[in-house]
């Protein structure tokens, strides 16, 4: 079982920055593919970014490319999402997720990000 705990959400203005963190426990961290998803108030949960177990491969949704950066520190069992140039449409609850295979099996409790114009 993998436990994921997010932190770092908050309220910023358009153009601002936030860094989300997600601490993992319960499984060898360096075997996990990690990702970030988000869910707005009137939408489905959507993919934001993912990073491979080694950190050598990353993937982003087109809506955040060039603005968000996912990274991981395997020594600290933590994955990060640096969010720059935030827009009101980035407002959502952001979830950390982990998988060992194809399916995202493990989820954090979510952290709120609010961007005002």
Largest sheet: 7 strands, mixed
What is the end-to-end distance? 40 Å
Shape: globular
Quickly give the structural class. Answer: mainly beta
The number of helical segments is 0
Report the average pLDDT across residues.
95
Radius of gyration: 13 Å
* Proportion of residues in extended strands: over 45%
Instruction: State the share of residues found in helices, binned by percent.
Output: under 10%
Low-confidence stretches are: none
Number of strands: 11
Order of helices and strands: EEEEEEEEEEE
What this model shows, in words?
The chain has no helices and eleven strands. With 117 residues, it is mainly β. Strands 2, 4, 5, 6, 9, 10 and 11 form a seven-stranded mixed beta sheet that branches.
How is the secondary structure organized here?
Layout: E1 3-7, E2 10-13, E3 18-25, E4 33-39, E5 46-51, E6 58-60, E7 68-73, E8 78-83, E9 92-99, E10 106-107, E11 111-116
Parallel strand pairs: 2-11
Antiparallel strand pairs: 1-3, 3-8, 4-5, 4-9, 5-6, 7-8, 9-10, 9-11
Task: Offer a few descriptive terms.
mainly beta; 0% helix; 117 residues; seven-stranded mixed beta sheet; globular
Gist of the model:
The chain has 117 residues and is mainly beta. The protein has strands spanning 3-7, 10-13, 18-25, 33-39, 46-51, 58-60, 68-73, 78-83, 92-99, 106-107, 111-116. A hairpin with a 6-residue loop joins β9 (92-99) and β10.
